[in-house]
Fold:
Amino acid sequence: MSLKRTFLAAAVAAATLPATAAADVNVYGRLNLTAQYADLGGDDSDGTTRVATHSSRLGVKGSHQISEGLEAIYQAEFGIDVTADDVFSNRNQFIGLKGDFGMTTIGRRDTALKLSQGKVDQFNDFEGDLNALFRGENRASQQISYATPTIANLFRAEVTYVTEDAKSQNGDSGFSVAGMFGDANYKKQPFYAAVAYDSEVLGWDVLRVTVGGKIAGIELGAMYNDQERVDSSESFDGFLVSAAYSLGDTKLKAQYQDADGSNKFADSGSVYSVGAEHKLSKQMRLNAYYTGTSYDSADNDSVLAVGLRYDF
Structure:
């Protein structure tokens, strides 16, 4: 059965659940599209216009109380690319348990290191996303994870075990661990910090340190990322800094990322982005941005884009 048919069957089943069960089911999604003028160094032409999709998705998630203090949780999320022939792709898909002990999951899910990034990436899901130069943005296809409860509303930790049978593990198991301090959304506390490490996850060892804060409507963030190919002694490191300022329903954003290294498995160079995001309503927002990429050993790219994002 194709991925498309599998998802449609799951969506129909969720929609037809009895009312008592449906209370625990949340069908949700996001469409995030931009119209772009892209000048890609690898193209023969000077530039091209296109429509791009950015981590659009459709999913089902929810929970069910098993007993006092113990819940079953689940999520089945699929990526949507409206510009491709293969519309659907896999995103987070797992089941788990949640209670006073914390949370544990099994299935496909973001690793601890990926989750540790918080909100410092102001151009997440767009061309200026931190994964333009950094490794570690992994959604492991075969993972078992455990997250501690939040201690004193300040600290929590998470660990991800990736099985050796998972794609791109080359027969070796991997671990991802993270310790997170503060609030990534800057609501309970106006600061956030995290230290995370991947060991042999999808062929890479990665150390990541993230800090961020918000005061008087200004968000500032920084990240250090050091990565090393498991089957190579060559290392590759870099940093990211970001800033944003909110004016009512409009957020002005800027970000710069730089990475240096000398190996054939990753590009070195820099990426800079400037843009704005305006909330038209709770569900709809307007995005406009410019992203330029300068590679040390490849042609430079640039993208000028304007688009809409709708959450439902």
